[in-house]
Amino acid sequence: MRLMMRGNTWHLRRRVPARFAAVESRREVWVSLKTDSRRQAARKATAVWESLVAAWEAQLAGRSDDGTARLDAARAIAASHGLTYKPIRDVEDLPLEELLARVEVLQRRDGTANAVTAPAVLGTIEVPSVTVSEALREYWTLTSDRVRDKSADQKRRWENPRKKAVRNFIDVVGDKPVAELTRADFLDFRSWWLERLAEETLTPNSANKDLIHLSDVLKTVDELKGFDLNLPLQKLMLKEGDKKERVPFSDAWVRDRLLAQDALSGLNPEARAILVGMINTGYLTCSLW
Fold first, then answer.
1. CA-based Rg of the chain, rounded to a whole angstrom?
2. Cross-referenced SUPFAM superfamilies, in alphabetical order (predicted)?
3. Would you write out the chain's pLDDT as a tens digit for each of its 289 residues?
4. 169 exposed, middle or buried (CB, 10 Å; 0-12, 13-18, 19+)?
5. Would you call 31 helix, strand, or coil by DSSP?
6. Which residues of the chain form beta strands (DSSP E)?
7. Terminal alpha carbon distance of the chain
């Protein structure tokens, strides 16, 4: 690594490794370290070189056939230029000054445009083709923090409703790429639930649980993977109506069945005390632990 003085400013001068020839046309780079102090330049040079290498590595990854790898690489490339990756629809809405700043990043010193960097800076990377079933697999990884302290049984009971919701959705609309899901797909799923409610002894709450869990899976993957899909999941919930009140046990039934002599003789003293306490106070067993 060589430090060279140009005018009153130190520059880093270094040959580009051959493995990056596919993404960097220059044989060597000159990078201003923006200081006239050799000591400061020496301190900054290593970090500057490492950032260059990271950007080239990201550009190589961006040539991958793996859509997720390309998107991750685009974020890294944008970050190496001090930018945040944004999809093209958001780039188009940027203030003119910010848009021009992105265009200037693409301008090489020889006046040519950096075509390798352009997709990352202008947001033209295609969203990875992740199907609904693949999104569920991604979801387990992205939400591992939610089950970290759960027992195996608790984890199973947490996962099963989400698996069911995704399975039901796929049965109705197919295992489509998430990026291709439309409002019509979600409305079809809602209509399917309405038909089930009319035919079976189910409540709207059953449908709403599916809609909530499906929405959680897809939104979580969309947001945490940075797909920016704006999925049309709004206003799908079903009206639940008035909840049916449970008819209480009559005083006579409690007295003659539960409090009758020897009615609870099959229970040990601790279990009998808990049951009597529940009868008299209404507390749940989960309140005891």
1. 31
2. DNA breaking-rejoining enzymes
3. 689 898 889 988 889 898 888 777 778 888 788 889 998 888 888 877 877 787 777 777 655 556 676 777 777 778 777 788 888 888 989 999 999 989 888 887 677 777 778 888 888 877 777 899 999 999 999 999 999 999 999 999 999 999 999 999 999 999 999 989 999 999 999 999 999 999 988 899 999 999 999 999 999 999 888 788 889 999 999 997 655 556 677 888 877 877 777 877 888 888 878 877 777 776 665 545 4
4. buried
5. strand
6. 2-6, 9-15, 28-32
7. 65
Q: Rounded CA gap, 4 and 38, in Å?
A: 9
In one letter, which amino acid is 263?
A
Half-sphere exposure of 3 (CA within 13 A, CB side): 18
| Torsion sign (Cα): 279, 281, 286, 289 | negative
Q: Give the position of tokens 């010193």.
A: 109
Residue 144: both structure tokens together: 């591992």
Q: Which residue has the tokens 């060589």?
A: 2
241 CA to centre of own chain:
33
Q: How many CB atoms lie within 10 A of CB 208?
A: 16
β-partners of residue 14 are 29
The pLDDT score that the predictor gives to residue 125 is 79
